[in-house]
Write the structure tokens for this entry.
Amino acid sequence: MSGFLSPRRALLGATVLAMPLLAACGGSEQDFDLSSQIGPDPVLPEPTEALLPAMKVAEVVGWEDGQTPQVPDGLTITPYAQDLANPRTVHTLPNGDVLVVQSRGPGGEPVNRPKGIIRGWIMSIAHGGGGGAQKESNLITLLRDTDRDGQVDERSDLLTGLSSPFGVAWADDTLYVAATDAILRYPYRLGQTRIDAEPTVLTPLPGGPINHHWTKDLALSPDGETLYASVGSNSNITENGLEAEKGRAAIWAVDRETGASRVYASGLRNPNGLTFNPETGMLWAVVNERDELGPNLVPDYMTSVQEGAFYGWPWSYYGDHVDRRVHPQRPDMVERAIPPDYALSSHVAALGLTFSNGSALPAPYDSGAFIGEHGSWNRNFFNGYKVVYVPFEDGHPAGKAQDVVTGFIEDDEAHGRPVGVGIDGTGALLVADDAGNTVWRVAAADGSRTASPVGTDEGVPARPTRTAQSAPIPPAQTQIAPAVLPRGGGSGE
């Protein structure tokens, strides 16, 4: 190859080279021990601010034929489905069929700061399309492995033309889809390969016109009565005003029959990966924390989600660590904030979470949580871009996160970026790679598989939910919705 640089890559290089100059006060990364921010008690340095945060962006180049991520000994990795259109999440139905939710975010978010223009352009590169022309996205594809040999035999688009979907759930011949502005319900019997019926709206969700964090995840409660939906904040740190944060930075509880909704937990800047721990029946999530306090703040995290709990955003992080950028300050809310369970290091962009209990994976991975880390762009070196595993004991994290699926990043280029994770109908791990347009399958090297499929919404014991020991959320906390939200209904428009 000649030494000629494309205008796109040259501009990218010039921009990245300029970032350290603009972010000279952004804090040192080279001497910071990343492992000190993994676990229940992370090291939190003093915050720093700069005109622009440090940035290092990996241009997406995709995967060459035969090229795969890497996994440790005892595991094997193969492509489960390729040529997708930004796959974000995977969901296994009780019959073993796998739904792949593919989506791109809605456009049109207003730019209210000069740095937003630069960041918007940077993110368009970081979220590339696998190195080629982009296919139409915002659809759900069904993958069927008829003989349970780990290879897809049938593939069909179940739903198309959706509004930036992300989470799904299934119960009682009904498929629930969390689009960016509503939870939709469709009549759906297992085995169908296409849905032609029009949806009804179970409940609206906060959407545009800003819609900063657009992904809305779903999890079905163990008793099948409640859907839990994640709603990210409408800003990094309230730069759009507190009024724009109503109903956001929260996890909602939605009655599956009536659509009646309430805020279940709040102060969660951008929660995703909603899932229940099969050992305890407790709801868990991964959360992307705030930016622009330096390269080593604030750690993204995994946490159990307690009913009525407040986790700090925007006024504080990790309990009582105050964010001075937010006005007005709310010491009463800081006092109420509880720290999360487990830090994952700063800016890894954790988006996917699934528990391995009951899978066919070997002993080192048979009782814990897999986490999809989409990867950083806002620090001087890359962090994340991998799937990690955190062992659990007695329903709680019990050890350091271990790298499981790596090789997404190479030098300054990204082959792909992991998002959602799940267990397929044979007990193998699936990883949705939205930039590489692939779903990867990670299985035991000895070919082990489960006796029968277990759906994502199955296999969770119905046990009492632990509740935070805190007072009800006061009305003055304007970044979340009132205790009861409007009921859904309508035609799905």
User: Anything to note?
Assistant: Residues 8 and 125 are 9 Å apart (CA to CA). The two ends are 51 Å apart (CA to CA). The first helix runs from residue 7 to 22.
